[in-house]
Amino acid sequence: MSSGTSSGAGARPTADGRLAGFSAVVWVSGLLLVALIAWFFADEGGFDVAGLGEGVDDDYRLSPWTSDTPIPAEDLGGGLYEGRDGAMISLTGVDVGEPIILTPEPESYFGGVWVTGTGGRIVTAGDGHEPPDFHSLGDGRVAILVEQPDVELWINGPNDGTWRGRVSFGGLDAVTDVVSGFESDAFLYDGGESTARLSARGDGDVMISVATVHGTQRVLSAVSPLDQSIAWQDSPRVLFDVQSWGDAGWRIGFPTDAASPGPSPTGDASPVPSPTDDAPAPEATP
């Protein structure tokens, strides 16, 4: 009995050792297989290692302009740039009278753009102690207003891939008195006021955001019909992003128009629409 017990105890470590050895072989083989697949797709151009955001930690993504080693976006030429989340586009000699437009390429998107001066220096105050933060318009573009000609654009892009977008300047219509429509629209206002009168009718929703040199601010999100004043932060030039859904028709009258329901400077004799008015909304004044 004694010898049989001793023999059984000696056989157990041998079996455990074989099991452990087998597990190690499977584990190593799995690692080799994963490495082989990654190498194959990288060699074929179908696996972008840099696009996974390697080397971009959460602290950098939240405030990339504070980093001692900022990540520059790649200049592909013709105003086209590519980069990871938090990558920076450097622009010099910008005309401060025109908005900077960042348009995403197909299958790319931008959560927003922070704007600083050179070296990540905050020139214009944004929200709190951060630089101005500009959000995407309804069509996916980001429109940016600046006060200085040399700027750095810090892109808030996807966490797990690369973005690609094109930089251009201007291209938005400017208004001074009244604008209206049934669809979403974006335009500039440089009349110097910081209030306007908004009216809407029909069945649908209306959302309005404004961008100044201090960043983007949402000023209204409501269901039509409505008739009320809206206000925004003082700025010499303001960019309006109006988004409407359903059958909502909207009209924004700036002080020269909102003070009276009479004719506008362009000869538009239509009154400001009221929630009870069943007539079609007036067309936009050029």
From TrEMBL:
Keywords: Membrane, Transmembrane, Transmembrane helix. Residues 275-286 have a biased composition (Low complexity). Residues 252-286 are annotated as: Disordered. The chain crosses the membrane at residues 20-42. The keyword Transmembrane applies. This is Uncharacterized protein.
